[in-house]
Amino acid sequence: METVDTVVWALWAMLPAYIPNNAAVLAGGGRPIDGGRTWGGRRVLGDGKTWRGTLIGTVAGTLLALGLTQIAPSVSAALGADLPTFSLRAGFGLAFGAMLGDIGASFLKRRTGRERGAAFPGLDQLDFVVGALLCALVAAPSWFTETFTLPVLVAVVVATPVLHVVTNGIAYLLGLKNEPW
């Protein structure tokens, strides 16, 4: 694959992981996963990690993966580049893993004394990527190894922080987020 094709492949492959946290922000709320519990005087996760947000984010990412699979042949033909398709297991693994990665980051933030919304450079940009990739590997191992070659993984790790900063900045400007990171 050439560089542009690799980046397009990588971004397409990660779309089901990029969407869940956005969907959770838009449709989340409700009961916190940690139920308000604390550990060492700090919330375990905080009010921002809810059951409804996790469910909606996972469903949104999984449905997106299935939709992308349906349109992949047409988009591939239009772009003149191959695009990956997703099994239900792969789509679910990416979407649920993205949510788990973000939940894990909240746990780490609370343990290090950071409040909800506080910046944690590096972790904020890649937490969901690590979760998504690990869950996709477990849920659909052969799909994962065929889809995420080393060049594709490099493209994901380089492009994701840039996309994260841009999309969060837009969400902040639109009033959907309280902080631009």
Kindly list the characteristics that best describe this protein.
181 residues; mainly alpha; two-stranded antiparallel ribbon; 2 strands; 69% helix; CarS_archaea; CarS; cell membrane; magnesium; CDP-2,3-bis-(O-geranylgeranyl)-sn-glycerol synthase activity
Q: What structural class do helix, strand and pairing data support?
A: mainly alpha
Largest sheet, spatial ordering of strands: 1-2
* Mean of pLDDT: 90
- β-strand amount: under 5%
Overall domain count: 1
Q: What integer value in Å does the Rg equal?
A: 16 Å
The total count of strands amounts to 2
Oligomer: single chain
Helix content: 55-70%
Element string (H = helix, E = strand):
HHEEHHHHH
The total of helices stands at: 7
Q: What is the approximate shape?
A: globular
**Distance, first to last CA:** 32 Å
Largest sheet: 2 strands, antiparallel
Low-pLDDT segments: none
Give a structural overview:
The chain is mainly α and 181 residues long. It has one domain. 69% of the residues lie in helices and 2% in strands. Strands 1-2 form a two-stranded antiparallel sheet. Strand 1 and strand 2 (42-43) form a beta hairpin. The model has no long low-confidence stretch (mean pLDDT 90).
